Amino acid sequence: MRKWTGIFAALMALMFAVSTAQAGKLEDIKAKGKLVAGIKDSQQPFGFVDEKTKDIVGFEIDIVKYIADQMGVKLELKPVTSATRIPLLTQGEVDIVAATMTHQKQRESQVDFSITYFMTGQRLLVKKGGDIKSAKDLAGKKVGSAKGSTSEQNMKKAEPDCTVVSFETYPEAFLALKQGKVEAVTTDEAILVGIKYSDDNPDNWDIVGDYISAEPYGLGVVQNDSKFRNYVNQTLMKMWETGEYQKVYAKWFGKDTKNYIPLTWKMELWP
Amino acid sequence: MHWNVIANNLTYLLVGAYPHGELGGLAMTILMALGGIFGAFWLGLVFGLMRLSKKRWLYLPALAYIEIIRGTPLLMLIFWFYFLAPVLWGRSLPGHQSALISLIIFTSAYIAEIVRAGVLGLPKGQMEAARGTGLSRMRAMRHVILPQALFNMVPSFVNQFVSLTKDTSLAFIIGVNELTKAATQVNNRTMVAPTEIFITIALLYFVICYVLTAFSRRLEKKIMRYQARQR
User: Fold this and answer.
1) Could A169 and B194 be called an inter-chain contact, meaning their C-beta atoms sit closer than 8 Å?
2) H-type helices in chain B, by residue range?
3) Model pLDDT for residues A96-151, shown as the tens digit of each residue
4) Which of A29, A222, A21 is nearest to A112 (CA)?
5) Which candidate from A4, A15, A54 shows the least CB-CB separation from B12?
6) What are the chain A neighbours of B5 within 8 Å (beta carbons)?
7) Digit-coded pLDDT (tens) for A44-73
8) Which ipTM score applies to this complex?
9) Among A51-65, A151-165, A209-223, A235-249, which is the least confidently predicted range?
């Protein structure tokens, strides 16, 4: 079904890409006084509903909040799904998309991307102490995934002789791993870490192997509006240079969180 | 087992972020189901009667509508309409309204066929006798045929309405915060309790569908008594 929604999304984006020739998104946003951001509402810790306050919070929400603050406008959050985020952007329903979207070449034909604001890669979650140390060890075995065709293709490329079983969401894939239906779960490391530490016994699980693929997340912006894209890029760099980015990163991925991932990459900074 | 996950998130599953934020969860599912049932019934009745008409300009559009809608997957209809609506109206509709209209459009095509079957299922003599008393075709339909036919349609209606209630879960594709979406949110955040969460929402879906069928059984009994007295 995910494959289908992908096809729909591409179709819709193509159909309406023509109808929205924007004239200056930056002025547009300032005139209406709010930045409408398409975000995820069920992807911990990027964008999710807080259990107590029931507000949408997360790493990506803090990123777009910073951009809105820099612009001096209000922030409006609009939950999107993987299927709707690109068409909503091309239609002009949202001004910016911060929804765990990997900067892919094939997406460049529909939307533009900012510089990378989060770097992750596809790896493997396995039972600790097992035989599986890398993708090669999965020959002839089953691997669970939840991200649909791209994770599947990447995995197949890394080890052609394995069977990829796609689940609707990550918790189901993890359940299958626990029940021994699959030998490993593969997806972006940032998500694997979240799965691992949400278990009652995180020490039973290990994230292993090299990056099967790189997954740089970029903010999606409408195509052919370099003024707005420049503004977003420069704001991201400013966020990094002032240390605000690192603060936000530590809040969601720091040592004390259940998504601990050391900050090992550097944002692309222009002189 | 992690039943505490359910306990901690029960209000979110039931009403979403309401009253602090937007309504969602089971309450949204019920509202969409009720709105869908109401809208689909009347729209379906109109299309069903149009389909029964002998006038070409009435039955041909109805036939085309029914065939096109029945030949489209609901998931696709919901998705397309969400992006088509802003083009048609010039302004965007919130996801839940867009999904509700799609559900009404989709179900009304099936209701129209149920109406047609119900009316055709009555003996021809009913219409002939009614016309014989001097009633116009319209009035004969309204006062003689439909009251009998609609009763016969109740089981099929209930079938369709139960199906519609469960179909509201498809609205999650455009991000409507109904029960399935709320469950996915909780599931993706807590990670450890997919079984518990999905058992809970299966139960909740069963309860609302059971209430619907129980209500229809009572309705049928009531009409049966009423009809028996008339005979």
Assistant:
1) yes
2) 3-15, 25-52, 56-70, 74-89, 95-120, 124-132, 137-140, 146-167, 179-190, 194-230
3) 999 999 998 989 999 999 999 999 999 999 999 888 999 999 999 999 987 656 77
4) A222
5) A54
6) none
7) 899 999 999 999 999 999 999 999 999 999
8) 0.81
9) A151-165
Q: Is B4 on the interface with A (CB under 8 A)?
A: no
**Hey, of A11, A19, A42, which one would you mutate to test binding to chain B, going by the most B CBs within 10 A of its CB?**
A42
Q: Which architecture does CATH list for A121-214?
A: 3-Layer(aba) Sandwich (3.40)
How far from A170 is each of A125, A225, B190, CA to CA, in Å? 11, 35, 11
The domains of chain A are located at: 2-119+216-253, 121-214
**What residue in B sits closest to A20 (Cα-Cα)?**
B87
Is pTM beyond 0.90? Reply is: no
Which residue on chain B is closest to A2 by alpha carbon?
B173
CB A170 within 8 A of CB A187: yes
> Measured between CB atoms, does B181 come within 8 Å of chain A?
yes
**A105-109, A235-239, B171-175, range with greatest mean pLDDT:** A235-239
Compute how many other C-beta atoms are within 10 angstroms of the C-beta atom of residue B169.
Answer: 18
Q: Where are the domains of chain B?
A: 3-230
The whole-angstrom separation of Cα B75 and Cα A204 is 39
Please give, rounded to a whole number of angstroms, the shortest distance from the CA of A268 to a CA of chain B: 30
Which of chain B's residues have a Cβ under 8 Å away from the Cβ of A59? none
Tokens of A51: 């259990």
- CB within 8 Å: B173 and A169: no
Give the CATH number of domain B3-230; options: 3.30.70.600, 3.90.1150.10, 3.40.50.2300, 1.10.3720.10. Answer: 1.10.3720.10
CATH class of A2-119+216-253: alpha beta
E strand or H helix that includes residue A97: strand A96-98
Cβ-based neighbour number of residue A113 at 10 Å: 22
List pLDDT tens digits, range B14-54.
999 888 888 999 999 999 999 999 999 999 999 999 999 99
